[in-house]
Design a protein that fits this description.
Blueprint lengths: L8 E5 L8 E7 L9 E8 L8 E5 L8 E4 L4 E4 L3 E7 L2 H15 L2
Antiparallel strand pairs: 1-2, 1-7, 2-3, 3-5, 3-6, 4-5
Length: 107
């Protein structure tokens, strides 16, 4: 990978045979001293339902369609599944993701 991924960035990820490759929002990236080298992501979707756990992003210039972060689809996997960086959320958008995540997980 040319750059070290950061929280708040959207990357294209190879999710394997069962799921198609798709954009994901990076929520946590493992540090060198972390026990496991897993990253935590939320997939992006263009099938927006306006449900709890969705954060509408509109149509960022680096995505082909109007999209939302689907926080109900949280996943962790090996960092090598990230294939290319697409863009990053603005700080205000990332704040909306954090609020929705706290609400969804009752934190």
């Amino acid at each position: 990978m040319p750059t070290e991924p950061k929280s708040g960035e959207v990357w294209f990820a190879d999710l394997g045979m069962a799921e198609k490759s798709r954009p994901v929002l990076l929520l946590a990236y493992p540090g060198r001293t972390d026990a496991r080298a897993l990253l935590i992501v939320a997939p992006l979707t263009s099938q927006i339902r306006g449900m709890r756990g969705e954060v509408d992003l509109g149509k960022p210039r680096w995505l082909p369609k109007h999209s939302a972060v689907n926080l109900q689809g949280l996943a962790s996997f090996d960092r090598h599944r990230l294939t290319r960086r697409l863009g990053a959320l603005a700080p205000a958008e990332m704040d909306r993701v954090k609020v929705a995540l706290r609400d969804l997980l009752d934190l």
